[in-house]
Amino acid sequence: MEPATVDSSLILNLFASDPTAGLVLMTVDGRITYANEQAARLFSNGATGAPDFVGKSIYEILPRDAAEHRLAIHQRVRETGQSATLRVIWHGWQQLTWVQYIRPAASDRARPEHADGHFLLVTRRVGGSPESQQLGAEPSTVIELEYARLGPLNTLSARELEVLALIGEGQTTPQIAKVLHRSEKTIEKHRASLTRKLHCEQRLELAEIARRAGLTLRDAERIRI
Amino acid sequence: MGAHDPINDPVFRSLAADPSTGVVLFRFDGTVLFGNDQAARIFMGPGARAADYIGRNYRDWMPPAYVASRDEMHRELVEQGKPMLIRALWNGFQHVTWLQFIPDVPDGGRAHDPAAGRFLAITRRVEGNLAERITVAGEFVRVDSDQIRLGDLDVLTPRELEVLALIGQNLASREIASLLGCAEKTIEKHRESIGAKLKVAHRAQLADLAQRAGLTLEDASRARV
Are A145 and A86 in contact (CB under 8 A)? Predict the structure, then answer.
């Protein structure tokens, strides 16, 4: 039997069928040429499927500044030849997206929109520290995106987000008070407010919410989109 | 290496470079045709490289009970023709493997010989509740591996693992006591013992370890290999 030729779409499907990962192919100017169902759902928090997502430009699905920030990172990946891991809070979850540039194949030259190559984006929901996910010999650079879609956390003030991040690290009220230079009484008030706004009863539930978002002190200052 | 060899495909190579993803392509008999460093670290240990296992048969280094359990899964997968999502607690981390069978002919045609086909295993670390990471309903079989490697948690007794699993679900000692049918005081003692063994002081840190492992009550009675 003659060996069949390699078919990239078959290969792509072997990875794209993984129910835990979103897969997107994007042109250098930000048009989505391929997305699996998982990617569309992660992006829209379940509101849209892949058919609505493919063909869109990043400018149609993100505010202009966020889209430009994102494309600038992609461009850097392309120029340096170094893949990167993007970290963002999206709908209350920490999401890691691994970005790699793929040069155009010989067959792509005939299709103008593919002629400059593609970015391959693999996205997952990841709790806890992004570093715990790294298994490579040389860890990929983690780039924290400037913007965030906080989801259920969007009702919180910047200060409350800081308190929540420290609760997520397992810190006690006296420790949190010290880190944030506030009285314990103030921290207790913030905590009561967090509990009310997030509809939870226990400190550990708050810790769980913080963990899903992989929340850090820096997240308090993100641009909310 | 035979028909439609994915290894030289640019998309395959790109996806296999993801630092958070272990990729292994192996034959029905267990011979590894391709694997990345990430998978070497997951399955062989922190210092392992791809060169340590490519061309070898995983039967040569994996425990017999593990091999037997995998053989059964592989047979079932080929029979049912559906991919598998396998959850395995390995070295203290919860891992999820997306396992697919690639028949020797592209369309899975009638005359194919399973022994000539290959398996593709895509493995990642997943924290906490696996169900929350699955965003699509697809045609696949969910499997819990009955062979586990507890890593740092291996110092714990089955009872302590149960208590830790419930701490990871943010339950209070009172609730844990009622679920496990013993006194609250006993649970407190278990908790102290777990803390001492794992050298962890805070409850939130214990919850963290449990989340990392995605620990469930069933894990307490699984075979440690």
Answer: yes
